[in-house]
Amino acid sequence: MPENAMSSFLFKLLKGHKGKESTETQRTIYANARCGNKHENFKHAHNKIRTSKYTIISYLPINLYEQFTRLANAYFAILIILQCIPVISSLEPITTIIPLVIVLGITAVKDGLDDLNRHRSDRSVNNRIVEVLDPTNMTEENLLTKEKWMNIRTGDIIKIKQDESVTADVLLLSTSDPHHLAYIETAELDGETNLKVRNAIQATGNLMDPETDPDGLSCYKLAAFDGKILCEPPNNRLDHFVGTLSWRNDSGRQEKRFPLSNDNILLRGTTMRNVDWAFGVVIFAGPDTKLMQNAGKTYFKRTSVDNFLNRLVVYIGGGLIMLAVVSMVGHIIFEMYHGDHFQAFLPWEFIDECERKTNMTQDPCEKGIPELISGSLIFWSYIIVLNTLVPISLYVSVEIIRLGQSYFINWDRQMYSPLKDQCAEARKTTLNEELGQVQYIFSDKTGTLTQNIMQFKMCSISGLVYGNQSEPCDFDTFNPRWYDHEFTFNDNRLLAALSQKHQKEKEFFTLLALNHTVMPEYKDDGNIVYQAQSPDEGALVKAARCFGFVFRSRSPDTITIYDATQDQNIIFELLQILDFDNVRKRMSVIVRKIEPDGTKGKIMLYCKGADMTVMERLRETTDEDLDVIEQTKVHLDEFSAEGLRTLCLAYREIDEEWFDKWNQKFTDAACSIDNREEKLCASYEEIEQQMILLGATAVEDKLQEDVPATIANLGRAGIKLWVLTGDKLETAINIGYSCNLLTDDMLDVFIVDGESSLEVKRELLRNFETLCQKCHPDNDYGLVITGHALGHALEPDVEHDLLKVALKCKAVICCRVTPLQKAKVVQLVKRTQAAVTLAIGDGANDVSMIKEAHIGVGISGEEGTQAVLASDYSIAQFKYLERLLLVHGRWSYFRMCRFLDYFFYKNFAFTLIHFWFAFLCGFSAANVYDQWMITIYNVFFTSFPPLCLGLLDKDVNDKMCILNPSLYRLGQAQKLFNLRIFLYSVLRAVITSLILFFVPMCIFMEATGNEKWGMTDNDSDGMTFGRQAFAFLVATCLVVIVNLQVALDTAYWTLINHFFIWGSILLYFALHFFMYSNGVYALFPWMFPFVGVGRFVIDKPVFWLTLLLTIIIYVIPVLAFRLYKSITKPTDAEKIREQRYKQKRRKQKKPISYISRRGGSQRPGTQRPGSSYAFSHQRGFADLIMSGRMTSKRRRSRSTINHLARAGLSLPSSPKQTTVTFQEPQESDANHIRGERLVE
């Protein structure tokens, strides 16, 4: 095996990967047979998930591998090897080993703690308990055993109870529903909280009998189930599944095959609703589940600063080589002219051989050979001497700063949510400065921008608007039995109208109570909980209930509501449901009221839908109708201006004879084989005509707090927001306007919804031409693209056109997108733009884009914690993103840049003194400092002040960061630390090193006499005033000046800064006198040769005068240059500080202006929708209701039935007409019932 392949294999093995990649083309699962599922070629994955990086065995080797991928660490490992060669090293290896071990150790501990948290979260998921069927215990009364999630395998049959999460991807076998239905919530998959229906095939549905076994305990038939499932291999398509079930059911001899589709599958991450229990056989487990397949790969994220540092290390390494080459050349020249006096430095073997050759042949040795050999050795010697050009402590200092910044984020009380009792959390400590450079934010909508809570806010009934009053409704008096205490509506006029039995108002709420596909669920305490397919429907039905029109039950033929104004149940015969779809944008129900005496009333059609589709189907207008229509349009504009989601309501009375003829046409269309959809649409169109406008509803999809303000301020900071949502087009656009992402002042909003690649490409090119023609400097355009069109737009030949349009738009909204498409959009921007991206979401459907972006932010919301677990940072609400970026992000970037600028400066100033000393020592690789000074310079003398700079410094306070978001743009343009800033730091370091070396040298040469080098003269006391004293003076000047420099760089002073800056200078003197004391020298004479130097030099006036003169020569030009820059080219921060000073500390909060909404009909642009209609509903439930498979009949245990009876409720037993009757309580219990909350 080649070496590269072997190393790759070992790395994968240590990380827990298989050596052989799976190429599974189809999967075979044997129910109740784990052994049979161990295919000879493919071993099915177990249900254990793992998001951690290390194991106990792999931790050390993988972590060291990752750390040595940093060029600086690899460089110092090579340097240690070179220092072990005595002939070229003038430094002991310990001078590099100690700092390197400290760096590697601190980083390893930090990485280990981060991974430990991931292990804990994995363990909490893997150790959840589920009931699994054990077919081996046929003698036991209960065949169900409790098992941990991680021990589940393909082929296992598991039991899922109501409100439990599904353990793995399972094939639904049987449920407690008589029609084998299961209702699921897929919030963690697609962000939607509305219910979806799944069904078991009839053959397996009969394996359990909910009639005789309401608790689902008799599982003998399931234990004997031995079906074989042949299906597609694991993939990431959430809406697709193809398979077949082969099984000898009913004790038949011949094996039958049953087709399987996505309607028969429960995916991991979904939550069971509205059924007591369900059984399913596991087909995909653990990493093979569609949820994990969509989770995306976990990337090792590096910041742009990290990448730039790696490049700088390469540049510095090149500079180091150049300096070593110059030193080598200087050494060769010196040896050629003066080397005869220093023959001891040449290799003795070569000299002896050369002398013997000269004596034998009388030919002299070739000139230059000894010098070249000595020069090649000196080259490596200077590589070692100048090694501090590459800062070994840089990375560990950066990690310490990042860790401290992470704690500041965690401790920020202004990002604490009392409602959720949650603080912001930096889950990764390596990306803080990246928060200050974000240019693109990719956000989910549901649960991120909105609260995912629909609330009925206003309505228009027969030309009158309700809900715009300040006084809340008194539901306690009007409808004490059924109203929800969490529901509020501010207009008592509506209650008064209902109390007076105004016909239009009653018709309005009757429509809301009848026209829907909501399922009522009776809890054990007698409360009704509505399970709605969409949150919009749930809000409307809930509002009707609070206003006294309570939806109680449904059957295939009837709907029962309770009318509080008459205090009686009303039964309606359900004749037909005209289901909702995105083309029709409306839904209708045809009913007939059944009087108490059994007579049937008129046939009524109740319709709700988008204003445009309903308005154009109204009857010929009378004067009265025209007034209602005009008033309703005005009200719709007002609702739209407030960002509310609107629906229009209309009704029609239908002649019975005409309905019979139409119903026959409808039945024929429904049974048609050819063009069924077109014929059904034609029949819908025929009956949904001549309607009378009843009014309009206004539902608030509640935005999270301060979302518009946050988006507006982030926009001023130069950050573009892209919304990637699974919602439909109208809903996404409506929220875009609500949160001011889209505004009425935009020149145009382009909508791309092509059905093919060619159509999408044409639409994008047409939009791009429009952009180029208008050429607005602010790019005041919006782009909305559907998921289907986005799939084509992400193709290689179209993605460039998508980018051209999207990058010129101020806002981009992608709707109906899958989790994988979200990740692909983020990947496209990352790949093509040199910009930092941030993804934020709250559900499992956002995990893939959170992992793909440079920075992932998770919001702990209603959709679970998957997004938080996969994120780099977690916050409680979207509004905290503003502070996370504009304050902590900007501060982190500012501090890191100031730290790096200073860090390279002090290291270059320290190292270049060696280079200037080379001209004095004949390029002999002699050290100007003591080796302990080299070892601890970056550890003690100059480590704490720059850490304070990187942790505490700030140019403006947090309020100014929020009020002046333009300050954030410096990070986006990388203006605070780049190659120019780095070269400027190097130039400052060169000047500083020249001052630090030549000023003391000249003074010493003059002060020590006339000897040429001034290294051997004795003073009056007979002590040598030579190289060691010079080294001490230079080191002292260096430590003092670099600490003075960090003081000059500090913009925000604290006691901590003062302590560490001046304390570092004092520490230098204290350690120097300690290490070079007589006692330490007596113990370790070979380690501390500079004994007594400090005490000798510090007594000399020339020492203090030299130190003072060096400081003056350095500091005065620096102060003068900074004053000149602040006057001629002040920074934005300096301008703000000057402004605050002039205002005499008067804090004036800059008002944030928002663009007011004018309503849907006033929006400019040719492609904008004409209303704020939004209805997150999907087709399909009507067929289940009318077929009788989905009803409100609930099977309960005996205790539940008894509890309902005590509450005055009874459940009917007739499957044909399922109704719930309310029995009037006895007089003695009336007050108790009146004050008790019966409805959730």
TrEMBL record:
Its EC number is 7.6.2.1. It comes from the Eukaryota. The keyword Repeat does not apply. Residues 1229-1240 have a biased composition (Basic and acidic residues). It is a multi-pass membrane protein. The keyword Zinc-finger does not apply. Its main location: membrane. Keywords: ATP-binding, Magnesium, Membrane, Metal-binding, Nucleotide-binding, Translocase, Transmembrane, Transmembrane helix. It is an enzyme of class 7 (translocase). Residues 868-1131 form the P-type ATPase C-terminal domain. It catalyses: ATP + H2O + phospholipidSide 1 = ADP + phosphate + phospholipidSide 2. Gene3D superfamilies: Calcium-transporting ATPase, cytoplasmic domain N (3.40.1110.10), Calcium-transporting ATPase, cytoplasmic transduction domain A (2.70.150.10), HAD superfamily/HAD-like (3.40.50.1000). Residues 1137-1174, 1205-1240 are annotated as: Disordered. It is found in: Membrane. Belongs to the cation transport ATPase (P-type) (TC 3.A.3) family. Type IV subfamily. NCBIfam families: ATPase-Plipid (TIGR01652), ATPase_P-type (TIGR01494). This is Phospholipid-transporting ATPase. It comes from Oikopleura dioica.
